[in-house]
Write a structure and sequence with these properties.
Enzyme class: transferase
Number of domains: 2
Distance between the termini: 30 Å
Number of helices: 14
Bound molecules: adenosine-5'-triphosphate
GO molecular function: ATP binding; protein serine/threonine kinase activity
Catalytic activity: L-seryl-[protein] + ATP = O-phospho-L-seryl-[protein] + ADP + H(+); L-threonyl-[protein] + ATP = O-phospho-L-threonyl-[protein] + ADP + H(+)
EC number: 2.7.11.1
CATH superfamily of the largest domain: Transferase(Phosphotransferase) domain 1
Protein name: non-specific serine/threonine protein kinase
Radius of gyration: 22 Å
Number of strands: 12
Length: 396
Amino acid sequence: MKRIRFSWKNICLPISCINNTNQKTTCTTNPSKERLLLLSKQTSVRSRVYLSDFSNSTISLNDLSNSYLIDIHIFTFEELKTITQGFSKYNYLGEGGFGEVYKGFVDNSVKTGLKAQPVAVKALKREGGQGHREWLAEVVILGQLKHPNLVNLIGYCCEDDHRLLVYEYMERGNLEDHLFQKYGGALPWLTRVNILLGAAKGLDFLHKEEKPVIYRDFKPSNILLSSDYSSKLSDFGLATDGSEADDADFTKSVMGTEGYAAPEYISAGHLTTMSDVFSFGVVLLEMLTARKTVKKYRSQRERNLVEWARPMLKDPNKLEQIIDPSLEGRYSLEGIRKAAVLAYQCLSHNAKSRPTMATVVKTLERILDLKDIQNGPFVYIVPVAGANKVHDIKCN
Ligand SMILES: Nc1ncnc2c1ncn2[C@@H]1O[C@H](COP(=O)(O)OP(=O)(O)OP(=O)(O)O)[C@@H](O)[C@H]1O
């Protein structure tokens, strides 16, 4: 489901690397002395650069990449064109609100020190301030925060009006395509729980930052899967690092994807970490039911999944009616009940009654340990090369 804006307010950032005269600019000039002085004063008190540092012009992209970014490579547009074979249709992976995504391959010959690996290259559609803000949010947040459940940003390109991002390539694409069966059979129960556990750990990590990062766009298409089905959050364009809370333009614009945003955020623009918890509840409900949160062609009563299904989550007799039939009863009964109660709590209209992501992680870990799976399929444990975990693969 594509991202929509509930309302729109242009965000005007001073874009230090855009050259209005249209000359070729690659953001590689040295930071000014005054800026570095200011920066060194700031570093003594905090360890991370925030998005607001850019809107206040206290830092430039050069300062950020020279002093703060972790293992980030700066690519030229030509280099990215080469590694994606000229953004060829054969390398095309898909398109989201930000722009098109292409598969590529990098190694030491592209940039010294670069590990040989497949990558995903995301190219920003050229459309002014908000597009640049989204690109910058990805660089500022993913360039500084590293975690096994956040997609790894390998590098970026900021040349003339080109804005691109280079990520590690995730072999199994996004959860949405698996959950709603674009590919093959239904995901087994424990694989689903494990995927959501990974995503929950990613959110928990973001929320535990000194200034919590609010992800703002949690949904299945933003959860990417590796070959062994471990999950990582991607698409940080709408994320906010907590530094923009006083910015009038920011607080006025409500953004996200229809069906996932918390009610208090839609109605009053009230954005907290609990907004992410609500969105997590929506995805958990989608995982339990294999139904999309909003679907036009469902009956009026069932159109909004949350409104229709939430009352049934706490009633074990009704619960069975909404569980994904393609699971064919192959799940832990206790596990599915616990997951349903967890979804119910995350979807509370009162933000304060929702659990924190730390509690969600603990609950999902307990559910993952419940192995009383009814009529279980033959489970073949595949050791995955390079990974220290084993995962169950359903064999028909
Ligand atoms: N790192 C990656 N590895 C493999 N595939 C990726 C990667 N990043 C994105 N993709 C794929 O590219 C396509 C577009 O992804 P993108 O994140 O831009 O948009 P989206 O999340 O589908 O939509 P929206 O931006 O509206 O939320 C999707 O099919 C996604 O699975």
